[in-house]
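Backbone-to-sequence.
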């Protein structure tokens, strides 16, 4: 009887160990599956000024990063180095991953309209941020954690066969949205969606002199 009881206890212990091993295998399989499905990269937007430190979270986009994105995309879309009739369309195509379908359609229509007016053929365009009108906190309005309004002040110069035909200072109120659809083509995870309010306008002499005190055109933002 004593040996039989020991045999029964040993068999019971072996069955318990088998259950434990089986459970461990299930846990290991689940962990392996989760590891396989985990993303291989994490997007982190680092602010340009880290002198006072920063708490950075994955996929948390700061106003400075939104401004830098909008400034780059708008400037590239309006840069015609050789011939506007060719460069404008090429820029729209090249930047399409960073544009929403709505804004891409807007730019395409604008290109067609300018072409009919003869404002593209043989014309080059140079565009740059007006000195002293770069990033400030007031130039980015946070509508929610996925939508921003950015005010960009540009100096635009256009030439036809080397002759200057236009020089203007324009303010672009740009609506930027989170657009994390294709990380391979758009590592920013952002897109220009539209012009806010009444759209681009000429800057006044006071604005060019930096005499503003409030957020630019905030009352025109949607």
């Amino acid at each position: 009887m004593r040996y039989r009881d020991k045999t029964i206890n040993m068999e019971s212990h072996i069955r318990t160990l088998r259950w434990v091993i089986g459970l461990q295998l299930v846990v290991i399989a689940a962990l392996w599956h989760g590891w396989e499905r985990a993303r291989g990269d994490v997007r982190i937007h680092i602010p340009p000024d880290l002198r006072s430190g920063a708490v950075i979270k994955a996929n948390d986009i700061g106003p400075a990063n939104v401004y830098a994105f909008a400034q780059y995309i708008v400037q590239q879309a309006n840069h015609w180095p050789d011939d506007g009739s060719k460069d404008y369309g090429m820029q729209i195509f090249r930047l399409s991953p960073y544009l929403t379908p709505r804004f891409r359609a807007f730019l395409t229509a604008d290109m067609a309209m300018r072409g009919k007016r003869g404002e593209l053929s043989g014309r080059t365009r140079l565009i740059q941020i007006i000195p002293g009108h770069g990033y400030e906190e007031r130039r980015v309005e946070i509508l929610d954690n996925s939508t921003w309004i950015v005010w960009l002040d540009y100096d635009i110069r256009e030439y036809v066969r080397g002759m200057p035909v236009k020089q203007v200072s324009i303010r672009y109120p740009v609506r930027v949205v989170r657009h994390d659809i294709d990380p391979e083509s758009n590592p920013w995870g952002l897109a220009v969606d539209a012009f806010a309010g009444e759209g681009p306008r000429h800057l006044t002499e006071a604005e060019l002199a930096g005499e503003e005190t409030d957020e630019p055109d905030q009352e025109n933002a949607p």
